[in-house]
Amino acid sequence: MTSSLAGQLFRMRNIDRVITSERSQKIRASFLFDGRQAADIDMQTIFDIGCDGLGELRKMNRKFDSFASTLFSPAIKDLDRVLQTREENERLDESIRSFLFLMAPYFLTKPAGKALEWLVRRFRIQEFNARDLLAAILPYHETKAFLTMLTIITFETRDMELFGFLVTQRKARRLLDRGTLMAQCVRDRALMTFVCSSVFRACQMGFEYAGLHAFYAMIFSQYITSLASVGGADVQFVLPFVLDGLQLDGDAQIAAYMVLGTLATRVTLSADALDKTLCAVAQRPADLRAMTMCVVQLVQTQEAALT
Length: 307
What we know:
By secondary structure, the chain is mainly alpha-helical. It contains 17 helices and no strands. The termini are far apart. About 2% of the residues have low confidence.
């Protein structure tokens, strides 16, 4: 009985959101079109646009094939997520999350834009999947495409403390430059945690790409160099992310070497921390040359901890 009542309340809250967004507005959220123009485009046309985009994405990466029978299936075309149960929406969110992270390397392409337009219209990902959407496209924060998507994202009240600075950016229609993002990360560690967790999640899901590794290495290294000084609390915050990065494969691990090198130049680690770090570096190297260079740098910068 309790579970049934909770499900009814969940659907009632979502239906309230529909009344204020879908039926009562003459402007529709859109990634490709002006809001008023989008309001005049029917669902079937948007579906066709989305399917066309998916078809092109499938030619680029066969991993997109599975979404033809799920998110882009004619059977789901008339699905209204606000009328679904919590469990059904959780499954839908998982499918959307997988698509967004798989789509990330292609975000700046026209096919990706077409596919996203369908997800915005049918599933309102800018509202119900805002965190996953941001996580997937954050490496493109300095692009116009990112700003366009940002203008339609709806932040939950509970997320405003973390993402409130983005509201200021979109009101001013300013691109989110690296300096602004870095300054916010330094002010709020929770944002840095979100960034790193998003990168690791994509890698663990098997949806990594070169731009993601470069983004992780650059933003985390800049975060470390932006700190006025690196103390014990900073090491306790940074080092676990570095160690997690060292457990990844390929270029993701090499990116972690770069971050570790930056950290090593800013602070002398404790003997225990250095021991754990060296063990992690040597445990399963993806690139022997990169690992050797990392160890050499650690030895050179951490001499005090080694004696």
